[in-house]
């Protein structure tokens, strides 16, 4: 116990010393800024720069650009002082460019001012492209200008920013010092761009639907609640995009999709964040089989575009998206991995008895289909490493899905699993308004019995269905998990620029 107290005290003392050191360095930089301002050279008065190229383009087009004048801008991250000549590494959004700065080229006075600058300062460099004697593509500086004075020192060069909490809270600093983080978010942007390209190629229309709703339906989740002052009404933040997009199918748009934020009042872990990006699409005149084809084609397309191959590595595991995706029913998956055949289970009581026998926890209101789903989560999910469509889910956990003809309590629904994680959820959409009302009623009963994630009846949606919705296939993709897969990121926070964090003062 004493050792723990000492260790804690040492850590506190180290943190205090570090803070004092930072404060001292900040004051030195403030003094430098004041000196510049007194000379009439305030960098914060500069409104623009003459940047005409980035580091990646210089590297890619070196033969064409050699000895040509360029202007690059970026942040100084490393500095090698060789007296009358200095090498600095300037980083822009694409990466690093070495810059050669010599007293004879920029003048004695300018060089003296330049030597007072610091790691972290943002600069404009004008000069010509050349290759050093060591063969490194560089810019030979002819003019250099301080654009922004950095008042706080960057993390120490060799240790970088390793504190995970700090990385998430101060993502701007993480982006500055960890190039792989910048790469992840550039890939995230590329993934979303390519999703749009893929769907545009299939004649889908991108739309936007409300985030503030009176009825947060379309998924099993607790919503965030707020108050709309102007209307004096309580409203919720959406948990899904589904019900509004289906209204558009009723309206005749036939192929629609939306990429947008949704909000679920749930915990935070490696795979969940209370606000996340969802892509949902709906296509008239097809079913969940059509959604399987679309999903498989899209995942293969995205992997090839973003990673360069449909065979990728995730957490040191080879994931092959080139091969046809496996298809298995939830019933067969449970039979294979848990040894229980739910097709022979005839009652809720029998299902509950089997759950007790296999130590699967359930609630008293759970029916056969609920317990079947719990069995899948307990015994099967983590076995789905290679891309696998798990099909034909129980009706109890699928209130918006068409029944599978000839089945006993199953619906035309699938989830895609990769590396033991649900990547998407798809249905043959229920378009029978009478059946849908009954499903909503069952959900209302669950809510009354304490299920806070149950859906509520959406009367306007039922009205829309009564006007007639064609047979429709629909699907929802969690963009964040998709980005995790294609960037080999192990936690959802690694692919969110600003993940949800508990306030530091709580």
Please outline the helices and strands.
Blueprint: H1 2-38, H2 55-60, H3 62-65, E1 69-81, E2 85-92, E3 95-102, H4 103-106, H5 108-114, E4 122-131, E5 137-148, H6 164-169, H7 171-177, H8 179-200, E6 205-206, E7 212-213, E8 225-228, E9 233-237, H9 242-250, E10 255-263, E11 275-284, H10 288-306, E12 311-314, E13 317-320, E14 326-329, H11 330-338, H12 348-357, H13 368-379, E15 388-391, E16 413-418, E17 421-428, H14 433-448, H15 459-467, E18 472-478, H16 479-487
Parallel strand pairs: 3-5, 6-10, 14-15
Antiparallel strand pairs: 1-2, 1-4, 2-3, 4-5, 7-9, 8-9, 10-11, 11-18, 12-13, 15-16, 16-17, 17-18
Helix pairs in contact: 7-8, 8-10, 8-16, 9-15, 11-13, 12-13, 14-15
Give the low-confidence spans: 1-6
Largest sheet: 8 strands, mixed
Radius of gyration: 29 Å
Q: Mean pLDDT, rounded to whole units?
A: 93
Q: What is the approximate shape?
A: elongated
User: Based on helices, strands and strand pairing, what is the structural class?
Assistant: alpha+beta
Sequence of strands across the biggest β-sheet: 6-10-11-18-17-16-15-14
Textual characterization of the structure:
- With 506 residues, the chain is α+β, with helices and mostly antiparallel strands.
- The protein has two domains: 44-154, OB fold (Dihydrolipoamide Acetyltransferase, E2P) (Beta Barrel), CATH 2.40.50; 179-325 and 387-495, Bira Bifunctional Protein, Domain 2 (BirA Bifunctional Protein, domain 2, 2-Layer Sandwich), CATH 3.30.930.10.
- The protein has 16 helices and 18 strands.
- The protein has helices at 2-38, 55-60, 62-65, 103-106, 108-114, 164-169, 171-177, 179-200, 242-250, 288-306, 330-338, 348-357, 368-379, 433-448, 459-467, 479-487, and strands at residues 69-81, 85-92, 95-102, 122-131, 137-148, 205-206, 212-213, 225-228, 233-237, 255-263, 275-284, 311-314, 317-320, 326-329, 388-391, 413-418, 421-428, 472-478.
- The strands form four sheets. An eight-stranded mixed β-sheet has the order 6-10-11-18-17-16-15-14, with helices on both faces. The chain has a five-stranded mixed β-barrel with strand order 1-2-3-5-4.
- Helix 9 packs parallel to helix 15 (459-467), helix 12 packs parallel to helix 13 (368-379) and helix 14 (433-448) runs antiparallel to helix 15.
- The longest helix has 37 residues, at 2-38.
- The radius of gyration is 29 Å and the shape is elongated.
- It starts with a helix and ends in a 19-residue tail after the last helix.
- Mean pLDDT is 93; it is low at 1-6.
């Amino acid at each position: 116990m004493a050792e723990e107290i000492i260790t804690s005290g040492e850590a506190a003392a180290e943190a205090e010393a570090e803070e004092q050191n930072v404060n001292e360095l900040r004051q030195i930089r403030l003094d430098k800024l004041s000196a510049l301002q007194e000379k009439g050279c305030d960098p914060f008065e500069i409104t623009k720069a003459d940047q005409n190229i980035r580091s990646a383009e210089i590297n890619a087009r070196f033969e064409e650009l050699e000895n040509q004048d360029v202007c690059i801008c970026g942040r100084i991250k490393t500095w090698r002082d060789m007296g009358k000549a200095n090498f600095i590494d300037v980083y822009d959004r694409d990466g690093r460019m070495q810059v050669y700065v010599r007293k004879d080229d920029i003048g004695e006075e300018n060089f003296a001012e330049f030597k007072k600058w610091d790691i972290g300062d943002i600069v404009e460099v004008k000069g010509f492209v050349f290759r050093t004697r060591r063969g490194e593509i560089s810019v030979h500086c002819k003019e250099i200008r301080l654009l922004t004075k950095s008042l706080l020192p960057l993390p120490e060069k060799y240790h970088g920013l390793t504190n995970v909490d700090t990385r998430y809270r101060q993502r701007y600093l993480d982006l500055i010092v960890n190039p792989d983080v910048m790469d992840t978010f550039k890939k995230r942007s590329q993934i979303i761009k390519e999703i749009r390209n893929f769907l545009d190629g299939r004649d889908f229309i991108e739309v936007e639907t409300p985030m503030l709703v009176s009825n947060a339906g379309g998924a099993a989740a607790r919503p965030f609640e707020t108050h709309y002052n102007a209307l004096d009404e309580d409203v919720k933040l959406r948990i899904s995009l589904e019900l509004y997009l289906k209204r558009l199918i009723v309206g005749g748009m036939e192929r629609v999709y939306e990429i947008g934020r949704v909000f679920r009042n749930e915990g935070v872990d490696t795979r969940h964040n209370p606000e996340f990006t969802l892509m949902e699409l709906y296509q008239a005149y097809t079913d969940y089989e059509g959604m399987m084809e679309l999903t498989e084609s899209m995942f293969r397309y995205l992997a090839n575009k973003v990673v360069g191959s449909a065979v990728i590595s995730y957490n040191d595991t080879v994931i092959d998206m080139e091969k046809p995706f496996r298809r298995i029913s939830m019933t067969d998956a449970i039979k294979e991995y848990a040894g229980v055949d739910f097709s022979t289970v005839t009652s809720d009581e029998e299902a509950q008895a089997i759950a007790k026998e296999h130590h699967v926890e359930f609630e008293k209101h759970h029916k056969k289909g609920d317990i079947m789903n719990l069995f899948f989560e307990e015994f099967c999910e983590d076995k789905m490493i290679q891309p696998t469509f798990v099909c034909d889910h129980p009706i109890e956990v699928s209130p918006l899905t068409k029944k599978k003809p000839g089945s006993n309590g199953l619906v035309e629904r699938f989830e895609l699993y990769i590396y033991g994680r649900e990547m998407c959820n798809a249905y043959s959409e229920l378009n029978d308004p009478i059946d849908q009302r009954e499903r909503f009623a069952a959900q209302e009963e669950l809510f009354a019995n304490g299920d806070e994630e149950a859906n509520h009846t959406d009367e306007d949606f039922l009205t829309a269905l009564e006007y007639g919705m064609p047979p429709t296939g629909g699907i929802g993709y969690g963009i964040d998990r998709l980005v995790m897969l294609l960037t080999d990121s192990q936690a959802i926070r690694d692919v969110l620029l600003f993940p949800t964090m508990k306030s530091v003062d709580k």
